[in-house]
Amino acid sequence: MNIPVSSELLDGCVLALLADKDYYGYTITQQVQQTITISESTLYPVLRRLKKDGALETYDEPFKGRNRRYYRITPLGTQRLGEIRHDWEDYKHNIEWLLKKEGEI
């Protein structure tokens, strides 16, 4: 089933990944794609927006003669992740309630 993913939920997925360790853009894309259907071209604007909003910061590391841009969650990003997780729990609970109604409506 292909359920559209809101930008809020996508932000949460990226921030949750980066809460554990820093990743470069391609790896973030690969990790997210293991869970939800999303194109690479969708994720890079999300990373840029989160950086612009102060939720992420970047740094470059050399790799085989090139630089890889790594993303790191900031304290503001950690706070935002907490808010998204809270909102997700409420949303998930409400959707589960609706889906379990089985003709009660």
Automatic annotation (TrEMBL):
Residues 14-82 form the Transcription regulator PadR N-terminal domain. Signal peptide: none annotated. InterPro entries: Metal_resp_DNA-bind_regulator (IPR052509), Tscrpt_reg_PadR_N (IPR005149), WH-like_DNA-bd_sf (IPR036388), WH_DNA-bd_sf (IPR036390). Gene3D superfamilies: Winged helix-like DNA-binding domain superfamily/Winged helix DNA-binding domain. This is PadR-like family transcriptional regulator. It comes from Loigolactobacillus coryniformis subsp. coryniformis KCTC 3167 = DSM 20001.
